Amino acid sequence: MSGAPELPWLLPAILLSDPDPDSGGPARPRRTVGDRIVDGLVLGAAALMAVFLAWVQLSAAGPTPEVVVDVIGGAFACAALTVRRRWPVAVALALAPVSLVSISCSGAVGSALVTVAVHRRLPVAAGVSVLHLATGLGFALYRPNPDMPFWGTAIVTVLLYTALLIWGLFIRARRHLVLSLRERAARAESEQRLRVAQARQLERARIAREMHDVLAHRISLLSVHAGALEYNPDAPPAEIARAAGVIRDSAHQALQDLREVIGVLRDEAGPDPDRPQPTVADLPALVEESRQAGTRVRLDCRAGPDVPPGIGRTAYRVVQEGLTNARKHAPGFAVNVRVDGGRGAGLTVEVRNGVPSGGGRAEIPGAGLGLVGLVERVHLAGGTLEHGRTGGEFALRAWLPWPG
Question: What is the mean pLDDT of the chain?
């Protein structure tokens, strides 16, 4: 576990920090059922020890004044444990004079010292422990043990209070470590949710870009066929019916694509990102659609059927954007499409078309972002994209890596 090796470095900060609200630290959590059970067990153990020690003294010396005071002190110490979590230092200080005259309070005093070590900083816990060590030695002088010399009693007392302090500090460090690990787990879970949300957003943006290219292609076909009907209203009925059918089919497909785009924007999960995507094998169908719209297209595809799907999809989008731009900016001009390449050499995609004199004004309006998105798509695939006029033609040329 990653937090365990850092525990030695965290100990100074843990031991010098104070988790209770009355000392300026972070607020202490409310008592749980487990805390109440622990409090009951601690109080029960201290009471049993007090009863046992009182019984031993009464059996040995009878109800003398010293024994009566001892028993009363033990009862008071056990009662004080009921508020040890709320005022740990106050309870420990209140039990210090009691421990001068009572041995029955030993269990309650030990619990109070451990509580101080758990809930207070090391200097405070050490100071309270030293105070009780002094009172313990005072009790040894006030009521010496006939079976052990004073120095022996002093050594046992020092070891006992040191063990209590170390035990409390260990519980404190372990609690801080558990809280730290819980916070890390919660933070890691939150970061994971954020990464998932970002991945979904990126996927939605990718699908939306795909739909943009498809919609631009469909709508340009609609515009071409509608323009043909507008400029040739006296065409034969069969030709008008064919053009109307193409318009209807293209409008239906564009509507379906638009619904998918809206679904991407509304639904966080979006449509199935693994739906079949176009590749190089779908280029003949794409070219045939443009031919039916009246565009003269010549396709020269020398790439084999083993083009990787990712590269093939990008190549398809390059040709689609080139045909769309040709219909927008150079209607009536022939378009030459060439796709060539192989493993290790990469895949070259080139779309060329004539340019009207004077630069030509687009008959079909557009946002002007098709090439921008295409450049981004090609760069993400690790390739390069060039476009511009060359020798009286407009050329769109892309190179895509094809690993060997």
Answer: 76
Do the Cβ atoms of 301 and 308 come closer than 8 Å?
A: no
Q: Where are the alpha helices (DSSP H) in 267-300?
A: 283-292
Provide mean pLDDT across the span 178-200. Answer: 83
For residues 114 and 161, the answer to whether their CB atoms sit within 8 Å is no
Look at residue 250 and tell me if it is in a domain.
no
Q: Out of 140-149, 357-366, 391-400, pick the least confident.
A: 357-366
In DSSP terms, 399 is beta-bridged to: 348, 384
Q: How far apart are CA 373 and CA 375, in angstroms?
A: 5
* 272 three-class SS: coil
HSE-up (13 A, CA, CB side) for residue 94? 17
Rounded CA-CA distance 365/387 in Å is 20
Does the reported pTM lie above 0.85?
no
Instruction: Assess if residue 167 is contained within a domain.
Output: yes
The answer to whether residue 205 sits within a structural domain is: no
> For the chain, how many helices (H) and strands (E)?
11, 5
DSSP state of 28: P
